[in-house]
């Protein structure tokens, strides 16, 4: 990464029938793309959405992986990827599932070979990708993990620091960050997936990337229990006693600052969040409802454990809003700003 110029962000435009393409053109037209940002998608699709919304925008088609100028209002550089079928707002097409995956592949490759410094993703539609024949598709996070040949990554959502600036005394760095020990699993499979080896790997990745990408010298992490009341001393489940607590004790002996296992219903309160840099929840709907209540539309999804920063929005494709120009672009704005910040910090560390 070159520290002499702003980091380059590769921004995939997501499901073509959703709000992703229009959020991208709106941000570009308003001059709200940070650093150097290149869209990865179909230029004709972006032009159509801009015209539909009455947005004046100049598209600059560039060869994938080529140099990208600094962002400027009203101009959107694009690494082109062609749609596989015509797209209309709000109407999914199985034929375009491969197009969505191709945009991801272009951005991933650019980041892996140093042509881009970070990757930001507009929302995709899991269902249509699964229906297209990718039965094992779980989402962006798992796809990135497999594409990069990595055994484990960590999903974390983080609110905009400005959202909690007045609460910085109890939210580390002014942001609420919630990482997940398990991600897109049916609830009945979660307990079996919360193993000692998985927890250790997740906590090591979370700790390392809080240092690497966020500049936290000694991360303080609060860890949820799995069961109500963190097992109530074994009366409501034994995973805390038999699995979670031993892992935390072993890592504390190495110098990790870990608090828990704590009951999830009281962890997300000012007293327990004081001085905490991140919370590790055991499953998707244990931690994310709290974070989204605190900052929906002003939060970003972060994939930790990759060789490059990757962020995304905290919402879905919003098919019902597509093409109407009514979708809130706040989350994508936060995801872009966070990716630029993370990539810039990584560049500084690499020089």
TrEMBL record:
GO terms for MF: 4-hydroxythreonine-4-phosphate dehydrogenase activity; cobalt ion binding; magnesium ion binding; NAD binding; zinc ion binding
Pathway named in the protein's UniProt entry: Cofactor biosynthesis; pyridoxine 5'-phosphate biosynthesis; pyridoxine 5'-phosphate from D-erythrose 4-phosphate: step 4/5
Keywords carried by this UniProt record: Cobalt, Cytoplasm, Magnesium, Metal-binding, NAD, NADP, Oxidoreductase, Pyridoxine biosynthesis, Zinc
Binding site for substrate: 140-141, 292, 301, 310
Cofactors: Zn(2+); Mg(2+); Co(2+)
UniProt main location, coarse: cytoplasm
Cofactor info, note text: Binds 1 divalent metal cation per subunit. Can use ions such as Zn(2+), Mg(2+) or Co(2+).
InterPro entries assigned: PdxA, PdxA_fam
One record GO biological process: pyridoxine biosynthetic process
Broad enzyme group: oxidoreductase
Regions annotated as coiled coil: none
Location in the cell: Cytoplasm
Pfam families reported for this sequence: PdxA (PF04166)
Enzyme Commission no: 1.1.1.262
SUPFAM superfamilies in alphabetical order: Isocitrate/Isopropylmalate dehydrogenase-like
Record: residues binding a divalent metal cation: 184, 229, 284
Known catalytic reactions: 4-(phosphooxy)-L-threonine + NAD(+) = 3-amino-2-oxopropyl phosphate + CO2 + NADH
Any one cellular-component term (Gene Ontology): cytoplasm
Subunit structure: Homodimer.
PANTHER family registered for this protein in UniProt: 4-HYDROXYTHREONINE-4-PHOSPHATE DEHYDROGENASE (PTHR30004:SF5)
Stated family: Belongs to the PdxA family.
Role of this protein: Catalyzes the NAD(P)-dependent oxidation of 4-(phosphooxy)-L-threonine (HTP) into 2-amino-3-oxo-4-(phosphooxy)butyric acid which spontaneously decarboxylates to form 3-amino-2-oxopropyl phosphate (AHAP).
Leftover remarks: The active site is located at the dimer interface.
Name of the protein described by the UniProt record: 4-hydroxythreonine-4-phosphate dehydrogenase
The organism of origin for this protein: Billgrantia gudaonensis
Gene: pdxA
